[in-house]
Design brief:
By secondary structure, this protein is of the alpha+beta class. The protein has one domain: Cathepsin B, Chain A (Alpha-Beta Complex). It is built from five helices and seven strands, in the order ααααβββββββα.
């Protein structure tokens, strides 16, 4: 799985889903907009409803609830993590990243534009608050039987419906 850099200051949720689906940021942003999910919508980093809408639309199976982070070792093989959690203007807010265990070891795909590398292994510096387990291996389009997800080379229109 490869990182996707967010092109909007508040596009971490869109970039995280794009990374899991093997899509570009502009393509995922276009798809998100068609669902009423925009980077300007503060629900993307203050609530899980918008990212869950996007995940459900692209067929990613997400756990039903947010689970408290305890240790890196206890995370599932693929998860959306809430890091940089804080109270801002009276509301909780956070930055979305993707945790994935790969053959070469666990990594965090961080979409933040200014990072030296968007594939992070500096686990001690990140402070996850909670996570949502996700599963992209079971993502199939029921109408076509085509697989979507990592390595998917289709167009956004292939997963719109």
């Amino acid at each position: 799985m490869n990182p996707v850099v967010q092109l909007d200051r508040t596009g971490c949720a869109i970039a995280s889903v794009a990374a899991m689906m093997g899509m570009s940021y502009p393509d995922m942003k276009s798809l998100a907009r068609s669902l009423g999910v925009t980077p300007e919508d503060n629900a993307l980093w203050t609530s899980t409803s918008s990212i869950r809408t996007l995940l459900a639309h692209v067929g990613v199976k997400a756990g039903p609830e947010e689970l408290p982070f305890t240790t890196w070792e206890r995370l599932p093989d693929l998860a959306l993590l809430a890091i940089k959690w804080k109270i801002q203007d009276g509301n909780p807010s956070w930055h979305w990243v993707v945790f994935v265990r790969e053959d070469r070891g666990p990594v965090v795909l961080d979409s933040k534009k200014g990072l030296r590398t968007n594939v992070r292994r500096d686990f001690g510096r990140m402070r996850p608050k909670w996570y949502i387990p996700v599963d992209v291996e079971r993502v199939f389009r029921e109408d076509t039987g085509k697989r979507t997800g990592p390595g998917f080379s289709g167009t956004p229109d292939d997963i719109r419906a």
